[in-house]
Amino acid sequence: MNPKVDWFFDKATQWQEEYEKLRIICLDCGLTEELKWGQPCYTLNNANIVLIHGFKEYCALLLFKGALLKDPSGILIQQTENVQSPRQIRFSSATEIVKLEPILKDYIYEAIDVEKAGLKVELKKTADFAVPEEFKNKLDGSPALRAAFEALTPGRQRNYLFHFSKPKLIKTREERVEKAIPLILSGKGLDD
After folding, report:
1. In degrees rounded to 5, what are phi and psi of residue 105?
2. Which pLDDT score is estimated for 192?
3. Is the pTM of this model over 0.85?
4. Residues of the chain scoring pLDDT < 50
5. 121 belongs to a structural domain
6. What are the distances in angstroms from CA 174 to CA 93, 165, 191?
7. 103 and 163 share a domain?
8. In the chain, is it the N or the C terminus that has fewer CB atoms within a 10 Å radius of its CB?
9. What's the gap between Cα 101 and its chain centre?
10. Exposed (0-12), middle (13-18) or buried (19+): which is 165, by Cβ within 10 Å?
11. Does residue 130 share a domain with residue 84?
12. What is the rounded (10 degree) CA torsion for 191, 77, 61, 83?
């Protein structure tokens, strides 16, 4: 146990018992405990294997390369359609965790084997993502905007495409595009 991570477990009001059980399971698998993104993260040779995190309705183990795991128990969850590599295993009680402990360890050991084998998730390229019509029209009408967008890193491009395509209303998508144009032209990402 890493004392730097203790504060996470000590401060938890919801899911405290569940977090403690997940922590023991991860440590039993021989992983190194670290604090990343304010969450307990378990690594092998500095490579992220699994993360413990919680939400209002559940707590979860996040397996960073979960898309590469076999999932014979059918418990891996893709958080959203845009999440490519990680997969979650969700819990709503400590009893569930205790019942699943041997299966959880099998999944973590498989994740360790995936990392040791150097396997990588084949990520979609930015070109594989749909460009919302509202943004496509702006790109077609402005060579400067197209050049600025193409000069952004692939991650920034994807972030904009996700952001633009999320709203259901055309008006909201148009507003998002308009608001982002100055950022794109200045070479900045959505979160810069």
Report:
1. -65, -40
2. 81
3. no
4. none
5. no
6. 43, 10, 19
7. no
8. C
9. 23
10. middle
11. no
12. -20
